[in-house]
Amino acid sequence: MRTSVVIFTTLLAIMGISIASTAIKHPVNLHLSKIHHHIPTLTRIPTIKHQVNDNLSKIHQIPTLAPIISKVMPSVVNIQVEGIQTVKNAPAEGMLLWGMLPFCAEGSPFQDSPFCKAQNGTHPQKFSALASGIILNAAKGYVVTNYHVIKNTTKIAVTLNDGRRYEAKIIGKDPLVDIALLQLIDFKDLTDIKFADSDSLQVGDYTIAIGNAYGFPNTVTSGIISALGRSTFKSTTLEDFIQTDAPINAGNSGGALVNLKGELIGMNSAIYSPENEEGYIGIGFAIPSNMVQNITSQLIKYGTVNRGTLGIDITNLTSSLAKSLKINIPQGVFVNAVPLNSTAHTAGIKSGDVIISLNNKSIDNLSSFRAYLSSFRVGTKVSLGLWRDGKIINVQVPVEKIKHYPPKTPVFYRKLGLDGAVFSNIEGQKGIKVDSIQKQSNAFILGLRQGDIILSINKKPVKNVNEFNHLLLTTPEPFAFLILRGDNTLYLLLMKRCN
Hints:
Blueprint: E1 3-6, H1 34-37, H2 66-72, E2 76-88, E3 96-97, E4 101-102, H3 114-119, E5 122-137, E6 142-145, H4 147-150, E7 153-159, E8 165-174, E9 179-184, E10 194-195, E11 206-213, E12 216-230, E13 241-244, E14 256-258, E15 263-274, E16 284-288, H5 289-302, E17 313-316, H6 319-324, E18 333-337, H7 343-347, E19 354-358, E20 361-362, H8 366-373, E21 381-388, E22 391-398, H9 412-416, E23 421-425, E24 432-437, H10 442-446, E25 453-457, E26 460-461, H11 465-474, E27 479-485, E28 488-494
């Protein structure tokens, strides 16, 4: 069964014309129009009259979340957006060639005809949608929500929990982490939310989610933190999600995830649903509050996010890599290479180090590290916890501007017998290219030559350098490289690793 992560913010409105939300663009579509047409009949539950014991009538003794919710509710808002998005033209129906091939499909002799070009084109379409937001600064009227909520919008309105309604404008946005900052117009008497330190969260902590679920304002649900540092493995975004089982659905995007003190621990952003299933199945994702705070502070001050890098070549620490290099820690981010002129090199980071923390936040994987680092502006000093030869050391490293350093051979290539070769991606083509190779190096002795293109390892396709490295670390020996050299293909066999 194919699965997909559904961005769950938006609730389509039926306005007499065809309306679609830009926020729902995934294989798992929420057919939200059914909400308006197929609401089941609501029947009153009959009351049961009985004698209430005086001891049980003391309501103050019954556990309740009400005090927490009443504290937070004024800070969570409902967002209504209108906009115009570009959608594909509907294909012509009932026009088939040879019983199977669509009239305008690729391969049809008519695909370049004016009729088919019109069928395969796009057109603008109005949409409206509902979502949620959080008041960050009552004095300034700042509200944070997800970027996909306000993408392609022409009008944004915000409704408070007491019914007051204000227009809003966009102050800044960061699509890479799915955050947008709004400011209310002609507002008064707002209540902002208090932030918790999301780095101190633990799996099992209780959570409360508040938002505009399916257009039902101020919907409150509860659950626990199911996992931390989650990624949905989308290549277009930076993700370090809190996973929760608190029920969240379409319309909850941009809503608050709070702790039992009523403090913000995350902003609800996405849900996970199997294909052909709709809504909540117990897996929801929220952007950590520290990341929300770091990004919005930049948007408030600069209007943009100026993210940087440490300049190092890194990869996930896999069990096979740890075993090969005798690293006795279970997880972290492995440093392949450190360019000579990078801030990381100046700070003393070395190839073979394992990053285990960033600003005292535990780092389990590459995705979590990149997402968390991305929230710090260029010039900010961050603290890295490193494992090196069985010892834990800490270094301070300034975040630097993104640069393109000359490629350097990762440290584990020597263990695999590939030191001496430099590889690069090939734009628009699968496989990787041997950019240069040192004569009499292990890679040269193996048989690699400059200009070779590596297509696969043990019949597993190689798409880019990162995947090549991953295959080297996870594929059992021996390695059979399929090489394209000029117009010919050949196999090179690496029998064993070098010591």
